[in-house]
Input
Amino acid sequence: MRIEDFAFELIPLPGAMPVWHGVVDSAQWSTAAKQVREKGGRLVALWGSDQTDRGCGYEAHAALTVHSGLIWLTLPVDPAQPSFPDISGVFPAACRMQRAAFDLLGIRADGADDMRRWLRHAAWPAGWFPLRKGVNPAAVHAVGIDEYDFVTVEGDGVHEIPVGPVHAGTIEPGHFRFSVVGERVLRLEERLGYKHKGIEKRFESTSVREAVHLAGRVSGDSTVAYAWAYCMAAEGAALCTPPERALWVRALLLERERIANHLGDLGFLGNDAGLAFGLAQFARLKEEALRLNHTLFGHRYLMDVVVLGGVARDVHEEGVRALRAQTETLRAEIQQLKVIYDEHPGLQDRFIGAGRVAPELADKLGLCGLAGRASAMSWDLRVQFPAVPYDSLNVRMATHRNGDVAARVTVRFEELLESLDLCSAILDRVPRGEVRIEPPTPEDGSPGLGWVEGWRGEVLVALECGPHGTLRRVHPHDPSWHNWPLLEHAVIGNIVPDFPLINKSFNLSYSGADL
Output
């Protein structure tokens, strides 16, 4: 579907990605969602905002993909009856986003089947919505009784296994409720929201310039993706473009972030299937990559390197030589380890067929990112809508059709090797010049949207600027919003001991879906 196919006005937004913004009514909101879905488009994000301090009401927002790029819809919501049309029947991934919009802002999806709490967890009293203007974010409330209506599965031999929210390891908190017969999983229901940190509210008291540091901490393993998406949005709102060299360095950082995370995941996947050797080898390689990050950029996980107007650190000749050397070493060792993984009968027995998400289900429920590409969802922003420098790098997208753990492992290996090739190409072609400019202060009310392909999938940051370099609203959006519901389906029919392996093959962010 193209921009000209819509029956309402869409205005192009300045910035690095093709984004159009339009204000719609309720009928247009619902119709647009149906049209986009019928033409093969997807829902990327859904969120709300408060304009009551400006004499208006609330707003519901949705970001949808179309053939031409991304459309950002804004639906004014009457404060006397704060509701908007449910679109979860069109895009099932909208369900949890709509529930979060109510918990945070008090705007309800009219007609939605599932209206249970998503974030409140009895810590906030009824009628208290933290993203409304004038709310004191430091307010402390008495904690009530936490009652959540889990779906019950009944039948002979069916019992429940509750896991979490506190886990034995260092992973983030999340509750998993398994309904099983013997060890066979009939149903899994997740409950997240235990990581709520008030990030979206915190943005409102942060300047446009400084908020990039907060954006980089939404989900710590994706700091480059979030920081770049935020900067892309803020730079678009300020009508400025960073130096070309800075954009190439950002791409180098993004690929090294992808490399480090894939290295870690492949090690843990081997370990979860009984191959401790894999964990030892991949952990060693990841540690070497993180140490070089710290040496060259000042932080193992590359925090605070991407900044408004460019990057905080340049790559000089000595660093280029070190990066080239490590790239070649990693490539050789990863290729060897791939052969070991591919030919290890014990690993393949655990990987093949486990946690399968068929392409049809992936398409229906909106699976995205690397997990989506393992289920034939051929979508990668670096390919479909490449920003500088990806528009000149000819990225090869890794895809698979089987949608099981084995497919997700294969996609990780292929993306690792492709990222190493991209790093080499960036180091060969990075232009000379400055790496940072001083961006102007954006005007009050200026919107901005950033859209970056992180290692997990597409990261979106939408914002609205306030007066004098302040921020009225920032919504950072993680691909895990779309993929957590698919994990519930992927585990059905598998045995309980396979869940850690299946879960790790997705490796979704708790924090990124809990703002």
In short: The CA atoms of residues 305 and 312 lie 5 Å apart. The first strand starts at residue 11 and ends at 12.
